[in-house]
From TrEMBL:
Region (Disordered): 391-417
Family membership: Belongs to the tRNA nucleotidyltransferase/poly(A) polymerase family.
Lineage of the species this protein comes from: Bacteria, Pseudomonadati, Thermodesulfobacteriota, Desulfobaccia, Desulfobaccales
Database matches in InterPro entries: NT_sf, PolA_pol_head_dom, PolyA_RNA-bd, tRNA_ntf/polyA_polymerase_I
Domain Poly A polymerase head: 39-162
Documented EC number(s): 2.7.7.19
Bias-annotated ranges (Basic residues): 399-417
Pfam families: PolyA_pol (PF01743), PolyA_pol_RNAbd (PF12627)
Protein's name in the database: Poly(A) polymerase
Length: 417
């Protein structure tokens, strides 16, 4: 059946069942409803349930104002300054968030500077302030119907990622929405609506206006999503990656830039396999994996011969737009240097030096070494089965014999990395 904008889809015509909704979320919805309020399940939770996926979180929207919500739930508190929402607490530290319908997004920064604090709105306005049509559906607990003010059901059925409203305006108001388009396209496998795609090409440079911390956090979500291969492919193809990291584009000529694709795809494909398998990896690990294909392209020396100073300089130049904390930057450099040294030593059939073995980052560097050298599927499946990375390093040099009779008389002072 086809559903135009403004449709109410009755329960028998949609796949969303209460059995798939968290019991505490249902309790909050029913309580609001019994107190005479509109109570809708909103956002990404509906999208995921419709697609038969397990939602990460459930969000609730209502016409009750924060103070009223707070009064209805004793175990709750109001958070946020400009955009207040209520957190309802349940056993085991579970939190269900309830927000009042809004007329605009908290991310529409420019408008907020001028507007008064009161941003409450109607359900229609709340749907219209959302990013994508598939993220703007409401599930009404009163009759279990779906409310679709933006044509999101049709887009779910047709497999389209479409921005709510004109993409150029929505991207100018909040450039992070461009990342969200690519995120949801990669997660769902849906096609990006052509007007959104061309607006990304036109407005991609605006991403530099967003707070570096926000962009960093957003990208980290994609590293960890299990779909980072497709996400970064879209980032590369749309030019958004180069917009965020101008140095990365500058240091690779056009041909090399497109030549990166197969390497990035292979590296990120393996990372997706590991994260889908539940392996937990550090933030520094992802940034290291991200930088390696670029480093391989730009340096004169092969990656395994690269100098620590060159690595540090490259990391500083390329990651500077995202203003990393010093500690995180050091972790990335240490991993890059360690992978390069592992490649050098293991690649030459040598034993891994004691200095390398002592490094805290060795397990992740060892994993990266295997990703880069294209280890077998079985190797990664074993890591997933163990849910940890334990380096197995050759104790004796497999090929060369150590010459006897040589004594070391002088120890060269080594740099810490
Ligand atoms: P995920 O599965 O990653 O949680 P999600 O769609 O639920 O996906 P959230 O970041 O949890 O993403 O956001 C919840 C909802 O808030 C979205 O579904 C969308 O409706 C709205 N939203 C989030 N970010 C924006 C934004 N930048 N502009 C407009 N609406 C947004
Ligand atoms: Mg969510």
């Amino acid at each position: 059946m086809s559903y135009p904008e403004g449709s109410i889809i009755p329960r028998p015509e949609h796949p969303i069942s209460r059995a798939d909704i968290d019991v505490d979320v249902l309790k909050v919805l029913y309580r609001l409803h019994h107190k005479g309020h509109l109570a809708y399940l909103v956002g990404g939770g509906i999208r995921d349930l419709w697609l038969g996926k397990q939602p990460k979180d459930f969000d609730i929207a209502t016409d009750a104002h924060p103070q009223e919500i707070r009064r209805i739930f004793r175990n709750s508190r109001i958070i946020g300054k400009r955009f207040r929402l209520v957190q309802v607490f349940f056993k085991g530290g579970k939190i269900v968030e309830v927000s009042t319908f809004r007329s605009r997004s908290e991310f529409d920064a420019e408008v907020d500077m001028l507007a008064p604090n009161n941003t409450f709105g109607s359900p229609v306005e709340d749907a219209q302030r959302r990013d994508l049509t598939i993220n703007a559906l409401f599930y009404n607990i009163a009759d279990f119907s779906i409310l679709d003010y933006v044509g999101g059901v049709k887009d779910l059925q047709d497999g389209i990622i479409r921005v709510v409203g004109p993409p150029e305006i929505r991207f100018q108001r909040d450039p992070v929405r461009m990342l969200r388009v690519l995120r949801h396209a990669s997660r769902t496998g849906f096609q990006i609506d052509p007007t959104a795609w061309s607006a990304i090409q036109s407005y991609r440079h605006l991403i530099r206006l967003c707070s570096p911390a926000r962009v960093r956090d957003e990208l980290l979500k994609d590293f960890r999503s299990g779909y980072c291969r497709d996400f970064f492919q879209l980032m590369l193809a749309s030019g958004l990656l180069a917009a965020i990291f101008p140095h990365i584009e500058e240091t690779t000529d056009g041909a090399a830039f497109s030549g990166l694709q197969p390497r990035m795809q292979a590296v990120f494909g393996t990372i997706d396999l590991l994260t889908m398998g539940g392996l937990s990896l550090s933030e520094a690990f992802f940034w290291t994996a991200f930088l390696i294909p670029f480093l391989e392209k730009v340096t004169v020396l092969p990656f395994q011969q690269i100098e620590p100073e060159t690595v540090a300089k490259y990391v500083d130049e390329s990651l500077s737009p995202l203003e990393f904390a010093r500690g995180r930057r050091d972790e990335v450099i240490m991993r890059l240097v360690t992978v390069s040294q592992l490649m050098h030593q293991l690649g030459a059939g040598r034993r891994v030096s004691a200095r390398l073995k002592r490094r805290l980052c060795l397990p992740e560097a060892w994993l990266l070494y295997h990703i880069l050298t294209g280890a077998s599927q079985k190797f990664f499946e074993d890591i997933i089965a163990q849910q940890s990375v334990k380096p197995v390093l050759p104790e004796k040099p497999p090929t060369t014999k150590r010459r006897r009779g040589r004594r070391r008389t002088h120890r060269k002072k080594v740099s810490p990395i």
